[in-house]
Specification:
Elements lengths: L20 H15 L3 H8 L4 H11 L7 E5 L5 H7 L7 E6 L2 H14 L4 E4 L12 E7 L8 H10 L1 E12 L5 H12 L1 H10 L3 H11 L4 H10 L2 E8 L4 E8 L1
Parallel strand pairs: 1-2, 1-4, 2-3, 4-5
Antiparallel strand pairs: 5-7, 6-7
Length: about 250
Amino acid sequence: MIPVEAPEPPVMRRSVPLPVGEEKRSFVQRLFTRIAPRYDWFNRLASLGLDQGWRAQAIERGTIRPGQQVLDVCTGTGDLAVLCARRRPAAGTVVGMDMNGAMLTHAQRKQRALGLTIGWIQGEAESLPFSEGTFDRVVIGFSTRNLTHLMGGLREMVRVLRPQGRLVILETGYPANPVLRAAYQTFLFTGVRLIGFLLTGRTWPFTYLARSVRGFLTPEQMVERLQRLRTQVEYRPLSHGLASLFIATKA
């Protein structure tokens, strides 16, 4: 029997609400399976080459150091996990976790090519399979807006941190300058979708990604949610607010 591929979701128009709950989970799973082979290229082009520098700043400002136990949640193709592993001697551990098997396959290939030691786990951010206080640092890059239940995922990430451990969140930005913010959001719905189409021949995944950026929390709202979890929060805009860095220290 020849397997029949499920039809692609309909193109998401701006007036159509973003998927939520279990619908969002299955939608995001399908989306990243489709774009996994070109995901790294998309990140470089859509960020104009800035994304790796943002990741390096997140690692540095999050004080990720040799010997720490580090978890990269929603690791995707493993870029943050790789940066963490390069700072880890034998005494430390880096674990990358993602719910999408296709993304983890590309992460593993990257790790093997670089000769690094990283543990990989397929699982959900909202139900981390680790005991309380396991990690010194938890990192997540450009993925909090894709969580099915944001507060549930944040609560889990804080739970597995040790006291005084840090949750390092790198997200798409919210430029304070209204002109820059308008130009940025215009680029999301034109340049980003065009780049995505040229790489994959599809626009619907990148329409969702653009809308998820526009519909996500402001930095103030994100700080408030992290403070609900009794963390001390530092917010830093990167590249004039094109990216956002949140560092939440557990009490």
